[in-house]
Design a protein that fits this description.
2 copies of one chain form a homodimer. With 338 residues, the first copy, chain A, is of the alpha/beta class. Chain A folds into 3 domains: 5-48, lambda repressor-like DNA-binding domains (434 Repressor (Amino-terminal Domain)), CATH 1.10.260; 59-158 and 295-323, Rossmann fold; 160-293 and 326-333, Response regulator (Rossmann fold, 3-Layer(aba) Sandwich). Chain A has helices at 5-12, 16-24, 31-44, 50-57, 73-88, 102-109, 129-133, 160-173, 191-206, 224-235, 249-261, 295-310; strands spanning 62-67, 92-97, 119-122, 141-144, 154-157, 179-184, 216-218, 243-246, 271-275, 289-293, 320-322, 325-328. In chain A, helix 8 (160-173) packs parallel to helix 9 (191-206) and helix 10 (224-235) packs across helix 11. The first copy, chain A, is elongated, with a radius of gyration of 25 Å. Chain A binds a DNA duplex (16 and 16 nucleotides) through residues 2, 4-6, 14-18, 20-21, 24, 26-30, 33, 48-58.
DNA sequence: TTGAAAGCGCTAACAC
DNA sequence: GTGTTAGCGCTTTCAA
């Protein structure tokens, strides 16, 4: 249907190769020839058939970003950044939704889809080191977020333990003593949940506060509903917490809701902190204090690393990059930043 | 790099065509032969090169979903549905973010990208009938959401006017008289904003209430921040509203925030209604009354229509499909559903 | 500086 | 039921 190289070559009275060279600049073309070709291209409205180009080059120009839940604003915000970065580098980004399913993550790793995409950015939650190592697909892989360590792939993440420390230190600094954590995982999954719990425990210890297992609430998933339910359970304890640190902002927002329903004041009765800095947290009542990862940095770095690997470029620096984060104090801990 | 048809053919001692037939079922293959081929496929770990297949078939297997903002949960939720529906039909869905930019929408319509994708689902906000008609790209187009009418393309949307009616009727029914609208557009863009304003005016008239232009707040964009600012302005009026209808849930949530900051009670002083039924609205304090479009229906229908067009199937029924919606009463209008 | 031509891996029309 | 083969549109080597 479309106009192709041959049409242009005929119209301009040159060979296919010459047209290709005008389009790709693979080797020099005489000025007059180039003009004739360019004119033909403009007149006929040619644009290359990327499928054919990719077949020839052995690449598709597609990279995938696989996230456990697209409806988590954190991933939506990350996706928006990654999409534009990929476009800037001449790649098209395909979104995959693993729905936090182990099979979906394995399928991605093992490349049932892999023949179509040149590389994969994966936020793993149900697979670990072993599964990543067992990967057979040959295309580059960049891991983001969760903690699958000691694998021969690029990995972009914040320092989860340090992030927890920062959150807990803040809560301790405003005088809280019974600090709960919501979002521990039942199984061995969600490495980052383990890391965040570890940071929580370490920070409690550093502050001289006791670790109370009953204040660590497990959840099956990591959405608002999970946070709300867990908070209700915590409030039902004989001696409820005076602060809550959520695995992520959605959980913290769910906790805010449960607290409001139960008539507790935030932050007076209970202070709340999350992680992710999703926009929603700036509009809750009260606004949500959070640990803000540098999403722009994560999204851009992940795409750039992946593309560099695909194109065989040298990548300097270590495989694992820890991106910075900041504590954003807002109303839910009573001490908004300026 | 990968294993290809030829490798399998050699291994199994058959021709390329036979292997292709085993894989695609284009024509029958003898049972014994099929087994030998299947064994070779399993042993060598073959999976077809989709690029080559698509080149041959003249299709890429890619469809695009272009939305004005991926970080609007409405679109994220819609995308999640569309991605899985596309996968079920054997297509891969590519997300495009137009960022509500006219140029981005035009580029999509006119197919600078079009050679790679088999079809496009577009939520237009800055282009109208004329631009859609001027489209040169030949691949199928399905419009969702906004009101670009009288064009020869499938269009899936809710009845915006009727949705407004439902919202306003509800507010009138609970005794509100000074009902504001937030999210009118300055220029000629966002057809749906015009339609929603029209529904608002019609419903006011039907209820015998005066139309007060000062209660219609314009916004540049349609996020939480826009809603918050507009609400602040409305509150600064000599005679502020006793109810607010937001163009969408994000705007309504921004309005909630402004009301909370100003110390107004919702719904006692001001009732609030949005449109979209994003999950966030179930967790705000108070929870948000909203008009809930059937996102699942919209997402699935859009993908199915598009695929049907791509594959040249007969599509019955009219081009424009209006999907159902429901009013979900929650705390922000004081009368939660059961 | 330009042209001719060999495929990339696959499908489908045409043979047998 | 199976094999042979001509391309899909493009890039890139080899020649001129």
């Amino acid at each position: 249907m479309g106009v192709n190289l041959k049409d242009i070559a005929q119209r301009a009275g040159v060979s296919l190769a010459t047209v290709s060279n005008v389009v790709n600049g693979y080797r020099p073309v005489g000025e007059r020839t180039r003009q004739r070709v360019q004119q033909a291209i403009d007149e006929l409205g040619y644009s290359p058939n990327l499928g054919a180009r990719h077949l020839r080059r052995g690449r598709t120009g597609l990279i995938a970003l696989a996230v456990p839940e697209l409806t988590n604003p954190y991933f939506a915000e990350l996706a928006e950044i990654a999409i534009s970065e990929a476009a800037a580098l001449g790649y098209t980004l395909v979104m995959e939704n693993t729905a936090a399913q182990r099979e979906a993550e394995l399928a991605l790793l093992d490349g049932s889809r892999q023949r179509v995409i040149d590389g994969l950015i994966l936020s793993p939650v149900r697979v670990g080191r072993k599964e990543v190592l067992a990967r057979t697909a040959g295309s580059p892989l960049v891991l983001i977020g969760e903690g699958v360590y000691d694998v021969p792939h690029d990995h972009i993440a914040i320092d989860n333990v340090a992030a927890s420390h920062a959150a807990i230190r803040h809560l301790v600094a405003i005088g809280r003593r019974r600090i709960a954590f919501i979002g521990a995982t039942p199984g061995g999954d969600r490495q980052s949940a383990h890391l965040r719990v570890r940071g929580y425990r370490e920070a409690l210890a550093a502050a001289g506060l006791p670790y109370r297992p009953r204040l660590v609430a497990r959840t099956d998933a990591f959405g608002r509903l999970d946070g709300m339910r867990a908070m209700r359970d915590l409030l039902a304890l004989g001696d409820p917490p005076d602060a809550v640190f959520g695995y992520n902002d959605l959980i913290a927002i769910g906790a805010l809701r449960a607290l409001a329903e139960a008539g507790h004041r935030v932050p007076e009765d209970v202070a709340v902190v999350g992680i992710d800095d999703i926009e929603e947290g700036r509009f809750t009542a009260p606004t949500l204090t959070t640990i803000a990862p540098d999403k722009r940095e994560i999204g851009r770095l992940a795409v750039r690393r992946l593309v560099a690997r695909i194109e065989g470029a040298e990548v300097e620096g270590p495989l694992t990059v820890q991106t910075p984060f900041r504590l954003l104090r807002r109303e839910s801990t009573g001490t908004p930043d300026a």
